[in-house]
Amino acid sequence: MDLQHLILQAKTQLETIENNNDLNNLKAQYLGKKGDIASLMMTLKDLPNDEKPKVGKQINEIKQQLEAMFEEKRSVIEQLEIQLKLSAESIDVTLPGLQTEIGTSHLLQQIVEELEAFFIGLGYEVKEGPEVESDHYNFEMLNLPKDHPARAMQDSFYIDPNRLLRTHTSPVQARTMLESAGEPIKIICPGKVYRRDDDDQTHSHQFMQIEGLVIGEDISMSDLKGTLLSVIRKFFGQDREIRLRPSYFPFTEPSVEVDVHHEDGRWIEVLGAGMVHPNVLKMGGYDPDKVQGFAFGIGVERLGILKYKIDDIRQFYTNDIRFLKQFKGGR
Q1: If you classify domain 107-327 with CATH, what class do you get?
Q2: Which pLDDT tens digit goes with each residue over 288-300?
């Protein structure tokens, strides 16, 4: 076989190769175990001994040239494949980017943050406490004795005889009183609370409260009324009025229900409040003859329902995007 002819033939065939699969097949034809070079090497045994080195050297040179030709072609094919891939996956940086929708705080969280900002501006601290609470802090420290109806098993989520899911955030107030060691207090306590209510349009087994507590010298009912009027006007508008009606709570005396004058002319109850009961002051380490205090409890869902005209409390908890998108703060 003319060795130079072999090189020219390989060059001609390589020009038509466009992918690695065909290249590998062609390479096997020339350089494989049964290829042309291997066949030439087998012919060496039939040559005179003095010609074998010369012919063997020529065959090896041709083999090396073929290998170099195939590697060069492989590099060309790979570069071409990269260019085709880059062309197919190219990005037009002048195109507008995808619009990513940004979430916002839940409506209840927005209400809590709005009220927190208001009370912090009045000098209040924000306090938190455990949601799994002891009977002692949830009831006894708040002047609810063992036989009080609010402690009935059917009204609260008891974990064991001494622990339950807190029914209000008042235990945070009790803990703060003990920690304050008789010093003045000015706090709000936002958080989730739990009661054994059947879920319906106006009730939920879980809801949110913001309770407040102020203790100090010369604290009066007028301080309480002024504070509540300020927060209601901040939340509902400066034209709103409130009405205080006598009520009963074990931990306050006197106690009041607070109504807001609605746009349609009705008075609607929004929260409960009162002067801290002397027994609660004593259990918290305060002398009721020297200091006084007031407390209030605001239902966060109740405020949201009234302000935003929501017809079902369950809307707050069903995570319906259509509902939540209505309260994105104008974004």
Answers
A1: alpha beta
A2: 999 999 999 999 9
